[in-house]
Amino acid sequence: SQRKVLVAGGAGYIGSHTAKLLRSKNIEPIVFDNLVTGHRSSVRWGPFVHGDILDTSTLTRALLQYKPDAVVHFAASAYVGESVEDPAKYYRNNVSGTLALLDACRHAAIDKIIFSSSCATYGTPESLPITETTPQAPINPYGRTKLIVEQILKDYAAAYQLKYVALRYFNACGADPDGELGEWHEPETHLIPRALLAANGTIPHLAIFGDDYETEDGTCVRDYIHVTDLARAHVLALEHLVNGGGNLSVNLGTGCGSSINEIVSAIGRIIKRDVPVEMHPRRAGDPPALYTDPTFARETLGFSPEYSDVETIIKTAAPFFGLESRT
Ligand code: UDP
């Protein structure tokens, strides 16, 4: 019979791109989402169940009804700054929410899960590139909730034969190359969308948070990975588990870092418009540089990025901000 996957948080940015890709591989995505940050209009590739992962009865009912082969779990709160201001929300949604989801899975005898983790679990690493054996030492509540869930998955795997892949995303960005989905957060805090909002005049300028870091040009360096590449990694992780592969925790990035200044000038070059910028002090909790060693993802999942060059990232993101690329 047709393969099915329950996509918790499938109305959000990375979840909706993953649902679209699953459908294109003939896997039915059943989206389960509370629509607090997700968008109903982003659910277009399979059934939708409106519910919260903390609502065990609704979730268990959905699992028993659809009997998915696995759960892909994106449902979480994901603003670092907010996690410092309101940690209770983060521990409740991300930790209690995942516990509720795992217990619903046990009840419904679903034993495979793919979990959205984060490079935020590494905090400020002592050396670069970051590998999967780099010590995990998060520096904010958001990163701690992701690390705690990884530890829960490990314990559940040992005790209950749960099979999992934890995917530690670096900086998700870009949009569906077909133009059917975009990056759409409220409030929008991420660098590339903020820069595009500055370019189209929605905001007066992009605030650059610090140009006195110990990096080549003084601005922070990040590993930007296209959302469609992230989506593909989930499909590969699903194949890995379905084929009997073992539990994995894998970094997802390109292996190359780009500075804020490099991103801003690439945007200017590609859309042929200036991005007005203003220098601001450092944002609390930002490590100077983060980028992965992509080897383990390639060896274990056969994953290598296809859309994550800066040009493709900007060209796919720009149309959602009414901007055309002109190269
Ligand atoms: N950043 C910035 N201005 C903004 C948004 C982000 O200078 O309006 C910087 C931020 O300080 C960090 C980098 O851009 O160094 C990437 O930030 P983002 O919030 O996109 O992702 P994060 O790395 O925090 O997950």
Task: Please describe the topology of this protein.
Layout: E1 3-8, H1 13-24, E2 27-33, E3 48-50, H2 56-66, E4 70-73, H3 80-85, H4 87-107, E5 112-118, H5 141-160, E6 163-169, E7 171-173, H6 191-199, E8 206-209, E9 221-222, E10 224-226, H7 227-242, E11 248-252, E12 258-259, H8 260-271, E13 277-280, H9 295-301, H10 310-317
Parallel strand pairs: 1-2, 1-4, 2-3, 4-5, 5-6, 6-11, 7-10, 8-13
Antiparallel strand pairs: 9-12
Helix pairs in contact: 1-7, 2-4, 4-5, 6-8, 8-10
The structure holds uridine-5'-diphosphate.
Uridine-5'-diphosphate binds near residues 80, 207, 208, 222 and 286.
Question: Would you kindly provide a written description of the structure presented here, covering whatever features stand out?
Answer:
This protein folds into two domains: 3-173 and 225-252, NAD(P)-binding Rossmann-like Domain (Rossmann fold); 191-222 and 255-321, UDP-galactose 4-epimerase, domain 1 (Alpha-Beta Complex), CATH 3.90.25.10. The strands form four sheets. The protein has a seven-stranded parallel beta sheet, with helices on both faces. Strands 7-10 form a two-stranded parallel sheet. The protein has helices spanning 13-24, 56-66, 80-85, 87-107, 141-160, 191-199, 227-242, 260-271, 295-301, 310-317; strands spanning 3-8, 27-33, 48-50, 70-73, 112-118, 163-169, 171-173, 206-209, 221-222, 224-226, 248-252, 258-259, 277-280. With 327 residues, it is of the alpha/beta class. The protein binds uridine-5'-diphosphate (UDP). Uridine-5'-diphosphate binds at residues 80, 171, 189-191, 194, 206-209, 220, 222, 260, 283, 286.
